[in-house]
Amino acid sequence: MEARSAITINATPEAVYERWRDFEALPTFMYHLESVTVVDERRSHWVAKGPADTRFEWDAEITDDVRGERLAWRSVENAMIENAGTVTFAAAPGGRGTEVHVALTYSPPGGALGSAVAKLFGEEPGQQVSDDLRRFKQLMETGELARSDASPLGIITKEQLNQRHAQPLSDEEVVDLTAQEVNA
User: Fold this and answer.
1) CB burial of residue 53 (10 Å; 0-12, 13-18, 19+)
2) What value does the mean pLDDT take over residues 114-133?
3) pTM, full prediction
4) Chain segment 18-57, per-residue pLDDT in tens
5) Nearest to 33 by CA among 15, 60, 13
6) Contact, 34 vs 48, CB < 8 A?
7) pLDDT in tens, 83-104
8) What is the Cβ-side half-sphere exposure of residue 34, based on CA atoms within 13 angstroms?
């Protein structure tokens, strides 16, 4: 299976590459990742969250690393999820930042059935990559990630089912906000 996505970020290719290359910080914007532990310059250990509260672990190795331009990896033998991918960083036309392109290939656990279940739960890797890139852009451009009740973890179907309908503030909340404004 394949997943591809791209986004333009208002930062230099070098700055975008450096932030992405900090693997242990990836879970800050890749919400499906629980942790990444760097083993050495080329190898790392990954722990990801899957559908229905499952966890997957694997080791990966860097296969290509060109500072400010490209980063490629693949899982090593006996990985729970075989995967490989490339992230490229290229100057956007007109000096408008950096185009980030992600290409990922993977073998989902459970084959086609596992892939269908993941899609049902909104955790299909293609959607995750797009969500991750949007959060990465926000982090690079603003220095923080904004979250709301509507999508604190990105677009995950099971979370969408638990959302509250929009509603006006209660009288207590209005009084509390007014008091905060007066004290500010």
Assistant:
1) exposed
2) 67
3) 0.73
4) 999 999 999 999 988 999 999 999 999 999 887 778 888 9
5) 60
6) yes
7) 999 999 999 999 999 999 999 9
8) 12
Read off the tokens for 174.
């209005």
Q: Are the C-beta atoms of residues 8 and 94 closer than 8 Å to each other?
A: no
* Domains contained in the chain, CATH given: 2-183 (3.30.530.20)
Residue type at position 137: K
For 18, the 3-state DSSP assignment is helix
The dihedrals phi and psi of 178, each to the nearest 5 degrees, come to: -60, -45
| Closest among 82, 89, 126, 73 to 107, alpha carbons compared | 82
Q: State the pairing for strand pair 2-9/55-66.
A: unpaired
For 47, residues 6+ apart whose C-beta sits below 8 A from its C-beta are: 33, 34, 35, 36, 55, 56, 57
Structure tokens at 63: 């296969």
Q: Which residues contact 51 (CB under 8 A, 6 or more apart)?
A: 117, 118, 120, 121, 123
* Cα dihedral: 10, 12, 16, 22 (round 10): -140
